Automatic annotation (TrEMBL):
One of its GO terms (molecular function) is hydrolase activity. It comes from Chitinophaga dinghuensis. This is NTE family protein. A motif (DGA/G) lies at residues 159-161. Keywords: Hydrolase, Lipid degradation, Lipid metabolism. The lineage of its organism: Bacteria, Pseudomonadati, Bacteroidota, Chitinophagia, Chitinophagales.
Length: 258
């Protein structure tokens, strides 16, 4: 179901959450808004959301980003089954970003981009908006215990979702019409759930309160319910995750105009 485009194109600020493989849904959400006539004026993002955000701020369309993810199999090297010696690797992601980003510094972008990571020493949120984009994306995506911290300026950084998984902070006071996209719906608890499910649920519960507070600062909030059936390591389910974000947002926008 396609939603009708607005008669006049709009630009709005977006904030994109982390979520591992569920981050693919960001492309579906952004595609639906693109169909609706809304494009980003600025993006704040962390973890998986920062990967999609870097490409979109670089001038790629959602369709082009989707093709890049498929062509280069971004994420497949980060699957749980590839975990060896305690750490997964972001090397593949780093290589693809160097190969495909046309602008590799924040200052060269035509759109404001904010990438957030977490200071692994103090736990404080770090907002990157100057200098090299790629190290910031890698730092924002380094989930502790799975990926080694990324050192920048002598400081160890890890996944930005730990300090704010809906990092609206850089946008507050600068933009008044913000769309928040969170790809980690809280699914019903089951005693029969396995280790990975419980690991994810524990993480989501730990960070959910800050997400809900930041949600209140968004004028629109997108959290596709269907994403609960996917895990953060389901990188092989790109099309299904993308479609979940696309379909949910199309329906959301259709209801908005009803």
């Amino acid at each position: 179901m396609d939603v009708q485009k607005n008669s006049q194109a709009q630009q709005r600020a977006f904030v994109l959450s982390g979520g591992g493989a569920r981050g693919y849904a960001h492309l579906g959400v952004m595609k639906a808004y693109e169909e609706y006539g809304v494009s980003p004026s600025a993006i704040s993002a962390t973890s998986a959301g920062s990967i999609a955000a870097a490409f979109m701020a670089d001038g790629y369309t959602t369709d082009e980003v989707r093709q890049l993810f498929k062509e280069f199999k971004i994420g497949l090297s980060m699957q749980w089954k590839n975990w060896k010696a305690g750490f997964l690797s972001l090397k593949k992601l780093e290589q693809v970003l160097h190969q495909t980003l046309r602008h590799q510094t924040f200052e060269s972008l035509e759109m404001p981009l904010y990438i957030t990571a977490t200071n692994f020493i103090t736990g404080e949120q770090m907002i990157f908006s100057q200098g090299d984009i790629i190290p910031a994306v890698l730092a924002a995506s380094s989930v502790p215990m799975l990926f080694p911290p990324v050192e920048l300026g002598g400081v160890q950084y890890v996944d930005g979702g730990l300090s704010s998984n809906l990092p609206i902070e850089p946008l507050v006071g600068k933009y008044t019409d913000i769309i928040g996209v969170h790809v980690n719906p809280l699914t019903p608890y089951s005693k029969a759930s396995g280790f990975l499910f419980n690991l994810e649920r524990t993480l989501h519960l730990a960070i959910r309160e800050s997400v809900m507070k930041n949600r209140l600062l968004c004028q629109e909030f997108i959290e596709p319910e269907g994403l609960g059936q996917f895990g953060m390591f389901d990188f092989g389910k790109f099309d299904d995750i993308y479609k979940s974000g696309l379909d949910y947002t199309r329906e959301f926008l259709a209801r908005k105009d009803a």
